């Protein structure tokens, strides 16, 4: 039987999202079940309110559910055994995922998508199996951050949602949000006590971070220098459970710091950090020492990682002559070869060959012969990542005595405060930018396909805007503000989300090409885009 598209725009758009995720109306497979953290601050705040509401509805044929920000059912109650049994037979059970890409249009998944309360009448459900029920879902937001913490849902059998469901849930949501605030105050108290205990008997550099709270002693501030202590939160993405782990905080040319991290029980994401000694970098590239050790160097990396800047720093006070491979594409290959041979013959002045990967095969051979010559000037080549080099350029690059692979910005997010400060200082505006922990968390979750060049554009955008105090998350340009679901992703999911965004940008939004680049089907691409909140 043909399925007609519903008339209400909010429902029509939801059906379209479900179709793009590869879901079919007749689907009724096994639900995806997740473990539930019964000690989470959100669930601790919601449970007493739901229990009180359930006592008022006892005997009525309704079902109450609470889902977390990922759409997983974390609390469920029903005043009617028949209703409960019917829902369970269709996969609506404790721990089940009810996002739209798993369960189609429903009051949990759709409310998460649209960000406001929504009623779903029976026939408006995308899945046939749910069309004998009607439901109403209301987002529960953190009163301070306005981030969605979860969804409160009420479901009943029948073709239409009861109009009283909305006012009933709105009052319960207000009570839950008030309890979230109380819980946040209690968490702040736990963080402060942990900081007091850690600093009472030791002079070790110590910091405590949780939510928007950042506590650091003087020794920690001295050890980090100009780096904001909030950046320590980027080290905790893969730290699970109460065990202690050690991570390295890379401060670029200043060196690195070994950091002992300990999760704090009774907090949502709070952690205690003990900082070790600063291990100085063994070589400052700006002095040009590397050129005295190597006659030839290749600096490889993604666009925007600072390949040319690093090459110039490497040349140091010796200066350098730059020969750009792009000139060989826009002009004569013969002229480019003549110019290259002229500046590299019998001199000690370093020569930078920018973007060597763009050279045609014949000119790659010219550069290769220069690299094996003992009378040639010192050569500094810049290129795309070495793993992406075509064979002609790869054969030349392989002859370099030293290879430097620049790390993309998405893997250096712990350096964001110092990088931002450095870029702002270069602008000579006199403004010292400080980003709040929440803003840094948003930036750390970005794919940064443009690397340092993209970061510089962001700094310029922020500097052009009126600045009154610290830069918080709402002050960031819209493209750097994640949704509630994206902000709650773990480290591996953030990396997957970044890969999806990068592939979509590289393919100019062509999902077939993006899926091919990622080695997945287009259906899988749509599903992961939905799951990781990637707009396409």
UniProtKB/TrEMBL annotation:
**Gene3D superfamilies according to UniProt:** 1.10.8.60, 3.30.450.40, Homeodomain-like
Keywords, sorted A to Z: ATP-binding, Nucleotide-binding
Instruction: Report whether Oxidoreductase shows up as a keyword of the record.
Output: no
SUPFAM superfamilies recorded: Homeodomain-like, P-loop containing nucleoside triphosphate hydrolases
The record's section on InterPro entries has:
GAF-like_dom_sf, Homeodomain-like_sf, HTH_Fis, P-loop_NTPase, Sigma_54_int
Q: Where is the Sigma-54 factor interaction domain?
A: 404-464
Q: What is this protein called?
A: Sigma-54 factor interaction domain-containing protein
What is the species listed in this Swiss-Prot or TrEMBL entry?
Pseudonocardia xishanensis
